[in-house]
Amino acid sequence: MKDLVIGMGEALWDVLPEGKKIGGAPANFAYHVSQFGLPGHVVSAVGKDALGKEIIENFTSKGLNFHIAEVPYPTGTVQVELDQVGVPQYDIKENVAWDNIPFTPELKDIASRTKAICFGSLAQRNIVSRQTISQFLDAMPVTADSLVVFDVNLRQGFYNKEILCDSMDRCNILKINDEELITVSRMFGYPGIDLQDKCWILLGKYNLKMLILTCGINGSYVFTPGKVSFQPTPKVDVADTVGAGDSFTAAFIASILKGDSVEEAHSKAVRTSAFVCTRNGAMPKLPAELTD
Length: 292
What we know:
- By secondary structure, the chain is of the alpha/beta class.
- The protein has helices at residues 25-35, 50-61, 105-112, 127-139, 161-170, 178-188, 195-205, 244-257, 262-277, 288-291, and strands spanning 4-8, 12-16, 19-23, 40-47, 65-71, 76-82, 88-92, 114-120, 147-151, 173-177, 210-214, 220-224, 227-231.
- It is 38% helix and 25% strand.
- The two termini are 22 Å apart.
């Protein structure tokens, strides 16, 4: 396959109150991209253990393509507790398999066939996976329509200014939520201006094609040079919000790659994310009216 759409980073088990469900933002992203008919592909690592074997079996059963290294570290798990409105709180175990994704000749070959990639800050908490992500980006073809998406995804203090700056330098699409934007703007020294002005600053500073800002129930924005798209958040019965942001990113990127306008892609992303909120876990099957 060529023109791959890669989700790179953590593949793990979300241990929810009702039991464990497969997750990790890059895996969620790649799975949902594949539901839109594009060659979604997960790049990660698991341990040589039962949980790792189960992740590989799960991805295989979903028909999801993957490059999953087996490494001598335990497969990643996250204890997820939901608050009263279904918003997750995470306890992410450290020094696990996805912290140690190796860069291999096979991975270099995958990079050479990649059209779009989504990566975050969490998988860069360890130098091994951080260097692998950087090498992968170096090996990607540089074309006018390549998409390099940095989904900030701040978790538990597993980030720093250097990682954020480097990642923003490498991406051409930035995805961030309102709480993360406040944290980032404090780190970067401009906390006192409104959210939209912060977005325009980042868009210009890092020469981005697009900046996606999600604000929970208060809607979402897509900033492009000289223009902004806004979509309200649909009101739905929320089961949980695990993976909703990843499905938003996947639907948006899939739509852009298919040639849709920013406004069309934004609308599809909002509707997809709203549906995922009505289901438990991060990887529900999407209805045909969304993926057709």
